[in-house]
Write a structure and sequence with these properties.
Rossmann fold, binds 6-O-phosphono-beta-D-fructofuranose, seven-stranded mixed β-sheet, single chain, 15 strands, 41% helix, alpha/beta, 12 helices, 2 domains
Amino acid sequence: MSHNQCIGVLTSGGDCPGLNAVIRGVVTSAEQLGYDCVGFLRGYEGLVDPVCYIPLNKKNTSGILNQGGTILGSTNKGRFAATVGVQDRVNIKPELLEGVATTMRQLNIAGLICIGGDGSLAVAQQFHEFGIPVIGVPKTIDNDLSATAFTFGFDSAVACATDALDRLRTTAESHQRVMVLEVMGRHAGWIALYSGIAGGADVILIPEIPWTFDHVCDTILDRDQEGKRFTLIVVAEGAELPDGDIVVQEGAKEGCGQVRLGGISALVAREIERRLRRDTRTAVLGHLQRGGPPTTFDRVLATQFGAHAVRMVCEGRFGEMVCYDPPDINCVPIMQAVNRLSQVERDSSAVQAARALGISFGDCPTQNSPFRRTVFVGAARFEEALAEEASQDATAAESFAQCETLVDEALAT
Ligand code: F6P
C-alpha cells in the first residue's frame, strides 16, 4: 500500500551515538506503513535554499544501526540556531519558516521528524507554531532534556567515560597520582555522576553541587591515610569553580552562540598540586564521548524512539516529542522539553548512593545529605547535627595535619 505521502527526517545539533539507529527505526517502520521517506542533510539547513535531501529506504539504511555519527550530517550552527543560552531563544526568520513550509508541501511531507537536543527542539517548536507538522525526538549525550527520563546518546557517553576511568585507575595507582578526568555535559552533571559511580571515582564535581578545594583535598588526604595513595576525580565541564566561575575555552563560541565549555580539569589539577604538592594529571575526554557505536541501551532506545515517532505522525500528534517514561515510550508537548534544563537533583537517589559509597562531591559531607535534611526537623536534632559536624571537622583537621607531615617526610627522603 502506498499513499505517496512522505515522512521527512533530519538530525540537528551536536551528533551522538544512536542517531543512525533512530533513522533506521523511522525508515523501516514508515515503509511498513506505506510512507516514503526522505532525509534532509545537515540538519535544518537542508530544508531550504537550497533544499538538500536524499530518499531513504530499507536498502540505504541497512547496516547503520551500530554506526556512530549520522548518515544525514548535522550542524549546530547556521540559519536555524535557535538557542543562545539556557532558555534564551532566537526567533527563526519568517522567510525561512515560509521556505520550510513550501518544501514540505512540494515533497508531500506528512510529518517532519526532528532529532535534536534542546536548541534543535526549540526550532521544532517554532516550526510547530508556524503550522509545520513536526515531531521531536530527544537526543543528546548531556541528558539535559526535561520530560524524558533519558535521551539516547547519554548511555554511550557514560560508557566511554567509565572506560576512561577504568584505564586511569591503573595508571593513577601505579604512580600514586591524582587523576582528574574532564567530561562533557554542558550545565548538567549527568555524565560525570553516572560515570563517576560506574567507574568508582573518589570525587565527582558537578554544576549542581557547589564544592570547595578544601573538601577535595581532604578527600585526597583521607585516602592517603587509608593507604590509597591515588585519587580519581571526575569533573563536569560545566562545574562552577568555588568562586562561581565557569571555565570556557578562550575565544570560542558554540555554533549557536553559546560559550564553549572546557578546561576546568587543568585548573582543578593545578590547585591540587599547589596545595598538596601531589603529582596530578588530567585527561579531557572531549568528543570521544560523542563518537563510536551506540551501547545496547542506546540502540534499543533510539530504535523505539524512531518507531514511535512514525506512529505519532500517523496519529497527527504534531508539536509533540517522543519521550522515555520507563518502562514505556510516550509523548509530551515539545514545549515541555525545551522549557527547562534537566539537571541532577542534589538529593536524588544516585547522589545519595554515591555518598553512601564514600564518593565526595567536594562539599561538606553532611550538606545535602538526608541527615542534613532532618537537621531542620527539630531543634534537638539540629544541635546534635551541629555537634556531629564540628567533631567531623576536628577529625578532618587532625588527619589533614598528620598527612601533611607524612607528605613532607616522604618528599624530604
Ligand atoms: O551538547 C553536546 C555537547 O557535546 C556538550 O556536552 C558540549 O559542551 C558541546 O556539545 C560541544 O560542542 P561542539 O561539538 O560544538 O564542540
